[in-house]
Design goal:
By secondary structure, the protein is α/β, with parallel strands linked by helices. The protein is built from 12 helices and 11 strands. Strand 4, helix 5 and strand 5 form a beta-alpha-beta unit. Helix 2 packs parallel to helix 3, helix 4 runs parallel beside helix 5 and helix 8 crosses helix 12. About 10% of the residues have low confidence.
Length: about 475
Amino acid sequence: KKAEKTEEEIETERKRKDEEEKEEEELERACEQWCSKICRIGIVVPLLFSYVLYPLGEYGMRPNMVIDDNLSLAGTHAIVTGGCGGLGLETATMLARAGASVAVGCRDTRSDSAVQALKALRVASGKWSESNGGIAVSQPAVMQLRLDSMASVRSFAAQYTEQHGKLNLLVNNAGTRQACTTTDDGIEVAFQVNYLGHFQLTNLMLPLLRQSSPARVVHVTCRDGYVRPAHGWNQWFKDGWFKGWLGLPVPIVEGIRVGTTSVEPSFESVAEQEEDGDLGHAAMDDEDHENGGSAQTNAATPRRAKGDKSDWSTGCRPEKAYANAKLAVLTFSHELERRLRESSGSEGVVSHAVNPNVIATEFVAKGAPPSTSQQWSYFKVMSYFPPVWISRKAFTWVHTHVCNWMLRSVEHGARAVVHVATAEALAGAGGTLFDDLESAFVRCGRPAHKCGRVPRSWQPPVANDLQAGSKLWELSEELLKERKR
């Protein structure tokens, strides 16, 4: 029979248990402290980098938009879409100030903005005429152009051709951040206004551009159309844990959505290709991607996803739809240049893309309203947590005002577009993308035609993919033909 424990043994065991409990508590506290530090670093550092350090660094290194101000565009005929306000109007005014005959496309020619735009263009054109000995120049024109209507685009092209009969410069500038609704033509609005309308207009004006050679097509795009933040923890850091942690920008690797069809690039890295080499791989549709198929295996007969190809609403998110349309613009610019080079009758006609970056206009403010899910999370859930709601409002206010302070001026953006549209160094060949985040547009220490030029390795694979570009062109023509019937 086991002897009962003495009081001394009981006391010793109690002290041992107390010490073990204290050690456990200290270990828990240490773990909590380390977890707290890790969480702070994991959350605060990316926020600080993304919202403070990166914007300030970009602002500090941003080059001045210096271009050739001694332009003489006498005899040049230009079209600027979306030319009744913001970047379009400033671009059209600069062209008119240099002696060009400018026609701008506007949604409503009777609106106050259209009337003011016409006055500004007439003043700019008149000043150039006076400073050049009274040389006559064709009066600027404001013409109705609704890119969300295929009929309006056809009417604009026919009217311009009849009235002017010459075109040296087409600036596809108009755009919208409205998304995830369909137009009267049954196309998602962001895709039609930003891309398909310009695709239609450019093809309608190509005969006149060829006839008026030398000529240039300039497509205004944005960073949303070729880079995106690296995938973070919610996407398992697919682009690398460090890039995903800080949300660094990386080239878009996804394809272009056209209804339920997806035009996909090769899975081969563009960085491995020649800087100006030919890239040619297959277009791959949603079904292929979901089944894990390779783009190269379907090079000859790319398949279309099952279902209604005109379904634009399923899974549509405004920010994704806008980026998708701008990616299509960049891909179209490169594909147009390739086709121009292969056409014997297109000598002297080139295609370029330019990103003027975010500028101080009302364009972003007129974007799409929050989705239902965003409204729920922002306004209903947060309303139950006043401190969090107030903190979010305060942070948003500070961030908005700081960003507005660092925005590029409208003149800065317009000068970038005008440079790409008129620089002699860019007349020889097109198929390029320009961005002042790459370098200054002139006197950058490199050959003039490479200043501000975004390298292929920093562009989306689908934009440089020959077969993907061809497939996008074919799908776009199909959409236009179907709606014309």
